[in-house]
Amino acid sequence: MAKSHLILAALAAEAAGGKNFTSARLSSDQTPGFNSAVLESDMGHKYQVLVPKSKQSESELKTELNALQLIKPLASSTLSIPELVGQTKDTDGFSVVVLSFDESKDIRLGTKNTEPIELLSAELARIHSLSLADAQQLEIQSFTPTELNSELVAEIDRLSDTGKVPGVLLSRWEKALEDIGLWRYRPTVIHGSINSDTVGTYGDKLVLRGFGSVRVSDPAEDFGWIAAGSTEAVLNACFAQYLEIKEADENLLKRAIFYSEVEIARWLSYCLEIGDDRAAEAASADLENLAEDAQRSDLPSLEAISFIGLNQEQTDS
């Protein structure tokens, strides 16, 4: 059941003793699976309270708290990361977590100002450089390239079952998944849910939040959102910024394009599941446009540049 902003404010006050919250507004629309509100204290500081709606969301919140321990050292003058302020339990036994919160402006892809996207690329490189051993100690979920490939094959089959994904796109994605060279990469710590709800800017800072999907997996997953709304030139500039900090395989951007395309079908499937006909219709139209581009051979090739890739074994520093 949805909780009101007043209930969430009361829970936040219990979780973060000593804080005097003077206002609250619901933000659950930006945090699917959670009752959520943004609060302001009498000191003018802002916070976010999160309360899971299900056991799955509870698991995501546990991942987020572990991930914040891992990523906290990266907070800097150019990167804002939420800090844990307090926690408790509600009457249903779900966790109540209060995090620091920076209001942020959306990063608009496709504009002439590419500085925020390039800054995001640099910060992603730093996240992807985090210790795998530390992630393992914090019980962060991990996928090898083979395991991820198998998961994606199964997912494409499920998306096909909706009957809404054009055959030309299914064939394109299946061919990409069969291209062994495309999937030769070193797994890294990734954010796992880079999108307009989890990324923004606050002054000169990049704001990152929503760390409930952090895992060890394909670094290209974090570039899917960037690839979806950027020109080839901008995408290449972002990759160049990334390579100044972190080594990467030469096929990373191709997989990023793959993820950007599949994400549209994922969104369509989700909209069908929740019965949002208007959003499903829009997603279906996007897929049809993508399919037309594929038929005209106007989409970037997903074929691996080479078979070599990067050695999948990595020694932690």
Account of the protein in words:
Helix 5 (145-161) packs antiparallel against helix 6 (167-178), helix 6 crosses helix 10 and helix 9 (252-274) runs antiparallel to helix 10 (277-295). The protein has 2 domains: 5-100, Phosphorylase Kinase, domain 1; 115-295, Aminoglycoside phosphotransferase (APH), C-terminal lobe (Aminoglycoside 3'-phosphotransferase, Chain: A, domain 2, Alpha-Beta Complex), CATH 3.90.1200.10. By secondary structure, the chain is an alpha+beta fold. It has helices at 5-15, 55-71, 115-128, 132-137, 145-161, 167-178, 224-229, 232-243, 252-274, 277-295; strands at residues 21-26, 34-41, 46-52, 79-80, 84-89, 95-100, 188-190, 199-202, 205-208, 215-217. Residues 313-317 have low confidence and may be disordered. The longest helix has 23 residues, at 252-274. 43% of the residues lie in helices and 15% in strands. The termini are far apart. Strands 1-2-3-6-5 form a 5-stranded antiparallel β-sheet. A 3-stranded mixed β-sheet has the order 4-9-8, covered by helices on one side. Strands 7-10 form a two-stranded antiparallel ribbon.
